Amino acid sequence: MTVRSLVEELIAAWQANDAHRAAAFFAPDGIYHESTGANIVGREAIYEHFQRFFRDGPAWRIDVDDILVEGERAAVSYRFATATSGAWKMRDGCALVRYEGGLVSSWREYHGERKTEQE
After folding, report:
1. Residue 101 carries which DSSP code?
2. Cβ–Cβ under 8 Å, residues 5 and 103
3. What pTM does this model have?
4. CA dist., res. 61 & res. 91, Å (int)
């Protein structure tokens, strides 16, 4: 699997709220880091994080704008939004992804300011 296809499949798993499938794209000792949180280390901890968000979190969506690949690294440009009180709160984001042995070894996110759009 190429880096691009791995990232596309990971995002498809997120969009399907499939925590098992999404976590399976990470190395056993992989790292997932959202811009506002601490590192989540290890596939099991990453699975638990995704499962909790899909189960207890707000309605959400992610729209990918671009995936740039260089060797075993990628930069993913996206827009992430959550629904709150009838409005979508959206922010631009970028993730730097490292790929080793066919799996994500590191996913690190950076976010811009939040914007609100009415439903």
Report:
1. T
2. no
3. 0.89
4. 11
Amino acid 45: pLDDT: 98
63-115 pLDDT, tens per residue? 999 999 999 999 999 999 999 887 889 999 999 999 999 999 999 999 876 66
What spatial distance separates the first Cα and last Cα of the chain, rounded to whole Å?
A: 37
Number of domains in the chain: 1
Domain of residue 89 covers 3-118
What CATH number corresponds to the domain at position 12?
3.10.450.50
Question: How does pLDDT run across 40-73, given as a tens digit for each residue?
Answer: 999 999 999 999 999 999 999 999 999 999 999 9
Per-residue b or e along 61-80, where b marks 16 or more CB atoms closer than 10 Å to that residue's CB: eeebeebebeeeebebebbb
Q: How far apart are CA 109 and CA 14, in angstroms?
A: 15
Q: How far is CA 97 from the centre of its chain?
A: 10
Sheet containing strand 60-70, edge to edge, reads 40-41, 26-33, 103-118, 87-100, 73-84, 60-70
